[in-house]
TrEMBL record:
Its EC number is 1.3.5.1. Gene3D superfamilies: 3.10.20.30, Alpha-helical ferredoxin. Residues 150-179 form the 4Fe-4S ferredoxin-type domain. This is succinate dehydrogenase. Keywords: 2Fe-2S, 3Fe-4S, 4Fe-4S, Iron, Iron-sulfur, Metal-binding, Oxidoreductase, Tricarboxylic acid cycle. Belongs to the succinate dehydrogenase/fumarate reductase iron-sulfur protein family. It comes from the Bacteria. It holds the Pfam family Fer4_7.
């Protein structure tokens, strides 16, 4: 199967980017978008050209690093599927495919398809963790946790931090990502002692870089982890709870 690729090329953050057109004549339906980029780079290297810079790691849909925009949609046409699992079976011989970096003001392009997603890291650094002194954590089997709450916490913990939700949002909002992290930790006993401080810090950091949420819903359509729209409500819930509790830290 021959595919005509329009790929975004940009040498560095200060350079003016542009689309360049390439052909991959031996693509197969089983290939993923990431494997298609692999094949393109093999061709470019063999011909003495400069390979396309892109990110990938596990290629099993759990690391979140492979995110690109395919035909104007984060990750690709198939809903709730990362780029490394977006197969080419939906394309026909000779079809054009446009591949670009994740598009958002908070994700500046570093090179070609690689973007700076440190804005997500800053939210996690602000409070997306549990601080327990080494040696003081109780044994896991001594901590009572309702099964339903544990399963719900795991659903929110499935977020892989790929940033597709932000790129899909017309406002560049990070509420689905932040809400998933807040919900996950608020449901667990080990996370509750920092709940108020966490909400204040993470929401404040989110509002520094990301846009406002209008509950448009495009984020849930591209989320590889299937994080529900209810995660967005958790942002305001946790924010208001922190305001109500005033100076208290938990």
């Amino acid at each position: 199967m021959r595919l005509v690729l329009e790929v975004w090329r940009q040498e560095d953050p200060a350079a003016e980017g542009r689309y360049e057109t390439y052909e991959v004549a031996d693509a197969t339906p089983e290939m993923s978008v990431v494997e298609l980029l692999d094949r393109l780079n093999e061709q470019l290297v063999e011909s003495g050209g400069d390979p396309v810079a892109f990110e990938s790691d596990c290629r099993e849909g759990v690391c979140g690093s492979c995110g690109v925009t395919v035909d104007e949609r984060p990750h690709g046409a198939q809903a709730n599927t990362p780029s490394c699992h977006q197969r080419l079976a939906r394309y026909t011989d000779g079809q054009r495919v446009r591949i670009a970096p994740l598009r958002s003001a908070v994700f500046p392009v570093i090179r070609d398809l690689v973007v700076d997603r440190s804005s997500l890291d800053r939210v996690i650094a602000a409070g997306g963790h549990v601080a327990i002194d080494a040696g003081t954590a109780p044994a896991a089997d001594l901590v009572a946790l309702d099964h339903a709450a544990a399963e719900l916490a795991l659903d929110f913990a499935a977020c892989i931090g790929c940033g597709a939700c932000v790129a899909a949002c017309p406002n560049g909002a990070g509420h689905l990502f932040v809400g998933a992290k807040l919900s996950h930790l608020a449901l667990l006993p080990t996370g509750k002692h920092e709940r108020t401080r966490r909400a204040r810090a993470m929401v404040a950091e989110m509002e520094t870089d990301f846009g406002p949420c209008s509950s448009f819903g495009a984020c849930v359509e591209v989320c590889p982890a299937g994080i529900p729209l209810t995660a967005i409500a958790a942002v305001n819930k946790e924010r208001l709870r922190a305001v109500w509790r005033g100076g208290r830290s938990t």
